[in-house]
Amino acid sequence: MRSHRCGELTESQLDQEVDLCGWTHRRRDHGGVIFIDLRDREGLVQVVFDPDYADAFKLAESVRSEYVLKVHGKVRSRPAGTENPNLGTGKVEVLATQLEILNKAETPPFPLESEVEVSEETRLRYRYIDLRRPAMQQKLRMRRDITRSLRGFMDANGFWEIETPFLTKATPEGARDYLVPSRTHPNHFFALPQSPQLYKQLLMVSGLDRYYQVVRCFRDEDLRADRQPEFTQLDIETSFMDQDAITDLMEEMIRALFKEVLDAELPNPFPRMTYAEAMRDYGSDKPDLRVPFKLVDVADLLTTCEFKVFAGAAKDPEGRVAALRLPKGAELSRKELDDLAAFVAIYGAKGLAYIKVTDRATGIEGLQSPIVKFLPPEAVLAILDRVGAETGDVVFFGADKAKIVSEALGALRIKLGHERGFAEGEWKPLWVVDFPMFEWDDKDGRWFAMHHPFTAPKCGVEELKADPGKALSKGYDMVLNGTEIGGGSVRIHRQDMQDVVFKLLGIEDEEAQQKFGFLLTALKYGAPPHGGIAFGLDRLVMLMSGANSIREVMAFPKTQSAWCPMIDAPAPVTDMQLRELGIKLRKPPEAKGEAN
Amino acid sequence: MRSHRCGELTESQLDQEVDLCGWTHRRRDHGGVIFIDLRDREGLVQVVFDPDYADAFKLAESVRSEYVLKVHGKVRSRPAGTENPNLGTGKVEVLATQLEILNKAETPPFPLESEVEVSEETRLRYRYIDLRRPAMQQKLRMRRDITRSLRGFMDANGFWEIETPFLTKATPEGARDYLVPSRTHPNHFFALPQSPQLYKQLLMVSGLDRYYQVVRCFRDEDLRADRQPEFTQLDIETSFMDQDAITDLMEEMIRALFKEVLDAELPNPFPRMTYAEAMRDYGSDKPDLRVPFKLVDVADLLTTCEFKVFAGAAKDPEGRVAALRLPKGAELSRKELDDLAAFVAIYGAKGLAYIKVTDRATGIEGLQSPIVKFLPPEAVLAILDRVGAETGDVVFFGADKAKIVSEALGALRIKLGHERGFAEGEWKPLWVVDFPMFEWDDKDGRWFAMHHPFTAPKCGVEELKADPGKALSKGYDMVLNGTEIGGGSVRIHRQDMQDVVFKLLGIEDEEAQQKFGFLLTALKYGAPPHGGIAFGLDRLVMLMSGANSIREVMAFPKTQSAWCPMIDAPAPVTDMQLRELGIKLRKPPEAKGEAN
User: Fold this and answer.
1) Are residues A265 and A195 in the same domain?
2) What single DSSP character describes residue A299?
3) Which pLDDT does position B115 carry in this prediction?
4) B386 with B322, same domain?
5) Residue B409: which domain range?
6) What value does the CA radius of gyration of chain A take, rounded to a whole number of Å?
7) Of B96, B10, B93, whose CA–CA distance to B45 is shortest?
8) CB-nearest partner of A556 from B5, B199, B220
9) ipTM beyond 0.90?
């Protein structure tokens, strides 16, 4: 139906007869001539209707926004002075000799040209209109480019794309599963996978050596923050590679991706940071290295001071006292400082002590602070030296249980770093490694796996049993600009170790057998050393495309309540359907008391 | 951990030190030396343990089948006369100097070397063992190759891979949906997609021009024949291409695929056959063109004969009398003929009349048949002429309603053609086109869509309304060797036409609005002419790899009752989970009467 796409025309088609199809982006009547900007996926081109071609001209008069047109005409140079340098096709236009209206269009529910004042619900309801915006199409194009680049790397490195089931059983990630009632096995349910974790490990036991899949995963979580009920992973597993070999290969893939899609150079190698270092310096296991300032421990300078908040935390083996220097922060107003104190309170901090350095040259005299008077002057000066404070800076303090201090100052660091322009325009990837195997949960009084229960420890069975809290894992997270974009581990490949880990996690044998028995059995039959990683594709595309939300890089996302306004899903179903599945609805909420 | 894969070693690595990892495929002790065939995804290599390297030799003595090993050694030529020409690595062996046992293995539940006498349930329960068989890995490798070839073609032709949701609403295919209860919207359910049909049409309305996706689809059907609850489609949609342009491009893709993966040449172009021709000549809308014989209409020769079964059907406007000549079929025994009569009875045929041609030269005398005596000799001879019967052939007859005759003789044609070796070793693709828009269902007294309700007719609105039964659609099926591997259509892109089709199908406005309202709305806002196709990837891989079942080309298939013996899914869930989802189980079957 067409010889070219609209956005592809350049001077190299001059004087050619072309057929174009596309949407009416804009129509202008000017000097007895009609101009239509015709739009397709590749861009816009100006089409001119002249009364000399009477049929086409007459029809063009009836054309409205978003009408779908087929145009036959000749490419010519735009008259001097009317070129549009902002348009790929801006040096040419098409003089139309024939026009066909392929379809009419009602006025769209919102204009395509700007995103202003359109609610997200409206955009999602008319997603097929929203997706006509060139900016949206560019994001989907970049998503396609990214996926293709990643696949290409995987293919070139001997990874086979292998599909795993969606109708499966509860997986170990521990979030809530989406369930699918089985009709043929009444009272039984499939779970949609939170990841193909167990299947990919079984593929390694099968000797398939290297596997990958670009695969949908599902979590029925409350959609705070930027989550979606279904999301896409690049899921990878390999046999016979140790942790360094895996992380080396994976960062090579990401470097190649950024080079290919964004022409950006990432560091080689990526920095590696232990979990302990990350928490110490950045108060986070996903540090944004673009922000140039760090948390600095100062407890050793404050154990003997009279200020109880500091001294108490300094002496508590589980406490932490840390300082965070914000360059040029002395200009912060009282109101701003109060707001920051309220911000850290979200993370459990009971206040936000600070010292403004109005004049570093005059020692204690040059400081402005509600706390300096409680601290020994030599300690204050030693702290300023240690954090490298200069005139015009502010230094914040956290003193509490280590977890609270790290989280609060870590979050403050990110907030200030981003708000004050320290986090723009650079790519700062790193690996975080040496995670603890387990985290102790005081409330439940038991260990939890920090990655998942299949992650291998760096130590042997006996050492692990002797002091589980000390054990580090062979887990690794790839972090980019403060976002975790990939996480993985070397897995346990011996049954005895897997048994021990399940026991430490309080997964009793029967439960382990019922949930993961097939994996334990599989480990008996010759499992190779193996490990892998999963990258969050949506998040990666979001970062690379500069989008504000993963919803912007998915064709048909859902709202925060997991609802699709466009197709209106989820929806009621018939009683017949429920009957076939052997389930029924609990009574509606108002009659809740009667439900059994 | 390794320098090469086992199966990759050739004489070009002679005298190199190599590190290999793999599974113990076979161990033999012979002449004071231990031979281990070490296996990985790429193949086997012979490793030799000599007592000269005492540590490795001693350890090798403890090695059993399927132990996972790491071997260091030197590649050398096999001694003259011990080369194995059946093995890629058969000219070399590795003299091991170091051995590490990476993991032990219990004796596998079934031997890997042959498929004999292992039940499919056992194979599925220990799928990770089953997948170690080289034959299984070859099928997954070919699946990978096929997918990659198809993606490559799509990418090269401007199709964008775009992901569509899995948590969606009932789609129009009409099979039973898998449902997913929503927790955040009580009493509402998502449906898993039977296809991304509506989403891909909306992507065209979005102006995304060309889309594809290798995508999982779900149908909760009774798994007769070779079906799976989840299966994979190559799903495609394009704008601004008419039927011929689409089918031309799609067959080009399939030709490129067969060339690339199998080095096979498919015809160019594929033959095109109308639905009417296919039913007439092959009694099937997916004819296997490898079988060289056809159904031949003979009603015109039999309208006046005394044999009521023939004459009745010949005179019935909805009847059909057809003959099928089986070359060299005169040797069929009475028992075999009875079995064939029982076979066609499955399709509703009341019997299977036949004429054996024992001597074509002697006219009626040379025939052997229970029916010839009821037929005018000149009609019999005319039939034999028309079907081209020769001495030694048998000619079968069907006389009944056209549907029964076509289906019965069509199935008989396939059965005999396959059993008697007429259908081997060739690739015979074709397009079947010009399907009727609608099929009349006597039982329900209404029209059904032969493809789906979004398929465009070849005629205009008025003509369609005037005689729906005559209307042909712009649907097309790609058929290969008797299997439909792809099906698609040009879609309706105007709202008025879509309204009319919904009305003819008895989908009233309110229902249409509720089910497909978003599509009807979308068609108002400037939908381009568009169409597409979906290929059944599992089936295509099955055909190309010569597998007997789609279960053989899926890594983790389910049984006929939609059960996975390996992970034991579906499984019971907790009452807490059901409560959160706002559903409960109906009473167990034995208390059925009490359920409300």
Assistant:
1) yes
2) G
3) 59
4) yes
5) 291-419
6) 30
7) B93
8) B199
9) yes
